[in-house]
Amino acid sequence: MGQGTLAAVAEPKYWHLRTVLLRTMDTEFSTGQVLPNERELSARFGVARATLRQALDQLELEGRLVRRRGIGTLVAAPRVGIPVGDREYGRTGTARGGQDWTVVDCTTGPATAALARTLNLAEGDQVHTVRRVRTVQGVTVAAESLHVPSAALPHLALVVDGNDRARGVLRQLDRIGVDGESRSVELGVAETAEAALLERPPGTPVLVVTTQYAAAGRLAAVAVSTYRADTCKLTFGESGVAVQVAAAV
């Protein structure tokens, strides 16, 4: 096989226009301001309407623009800083900045093959799953599924259902003494279930934060938190300024 070379790829017109629009937004428009209509923008930049729509769609996907029916296309507000701290599973109710964790439901059932691998269990072992959403000033920015093996919480009363069971799972998890955690972040897209909780269409870009909790040297729980990449900037560490991860879509 011969030695190959990388051929130069021409930048798509819509992508170049996206860059030009970003510079224009930064210098001529402020947050919440309505952009000129498509006809005016097409004439100003000398591009076809189809190319303009591609660029606008891309900027909306990235969270730089917001479209409002009856109003037009607006410059979006900067991404909201979302602090992600230790023992996030124990945070409920209202936090700083008007941020809330709210329980959606709690179920107990057999682990699927994929979940069993994640939790180091046998397929079919019982697992408690607490689903929550996180809101900032009334807007849902994250959905979370916390998975805890039933064997890790032997004193949990199985007769309790709904939010009471969720609170029981969270309390018991705290009582067993979580003594370590690790966290990873990756870019993904919202699947159907998460998209419904986020009130966004499936395929929406998201930041997926996976946290593993350990107790007595063993894996005690795994939380998968799905954050909207178009509106969130995640901050890590007790101070919330140690590390920042902004979505780059």
UniProtKB/TrEMBL annotation:
Q: What's a single GO MF annotation on this record?
A: DNA-binding transcription factor activity
- Quick check: keyword DNA-binding in the entry? yes
Q: What InterPro entries would the database entry show?
A: Bact_HTH_transcr_reg (IPR050679), Chorismate_lyase_/UTRA_dom_sf (IPR028978), Tscrpt_reg_HTH_GntR (IPR000524), UTRA (IPR011663), WH-like_DNA-bd_sf (IPR036388), WH_DNA-bd_sf (IPR036390)
Q: Please state every residue range assigned to the domain named HTH gntR-type.
A: 11-78
PROSITE patterns reported for this sequence: HTH_GNTR (PS50949)
Q: Does the keyword Transcription apply?
A: yes
Biological processes, Gene Ontology terms: negative regulation of DNA-templated transcription
Alphabetically ordered keywords of this record? DNA-binding, Transcription, Transcription regulation
Domain of life according to the entry:
Bacteria
Q: What is this protein called?
A: Putative GntR family transcriptional regulator
Species name? Kitasatospora setae (strain ATCC 33774 / DSM 43861 / JCM 3304 / KCC A-0304 / NBRC 14216 / KM-6054) (Streptomyces setae)
What taxonomic ancestry is recorded?
Bacteria, Bacillati, Actinomycetota, Actinomycetes, Kitasatosporales
